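Now for one protein, fold included:
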Amino acid sequence: MIDTDDLFFFIIAFATCIIPIFGEYLLGHESVAWVSHPSVPDHPDHELAKKLLPNGRGSMIAFGIKGGKDAGVAFINNVKLASHLANVGDTRTLVIHPASGTHSQMDEATLKFAGLSHDMIRLSVGIEDIDDIKNDFEVGFRAARKPRLVSNQ
């Protein structure tokens, strides 16, 4: 019998191992304006995270999609493997665009005060094959480059 605690820690460890690879993919992508994760060297808590979290820095990444809010909506509406959900820590890859979803009622000043922006996508990496996730994101990025044509799909 599989111990559920062991399975939980396996899933977390697996997702944490993928993050550096996925972070590099996002950092190098033409459709991404910025990436925020403690594994990224320019993150303000990078050195502290290396010290406190030597075995990994979590499976949640925030990144900015070029094109702002419309591009974020188009991206979310066009990824298929990644689930559009606000929770984290799942076995599935999850994405959300806070400015058009969970925080859509906020004005610009309140979004900024909360540390959010119109271009922010929150990503919780799951256990799917990394190439499958990347391929799914490529579909979303293509849609984001032409949001008015595809955002209602």
Residues 47 and 80 are 35 Å apart (CA to CA).
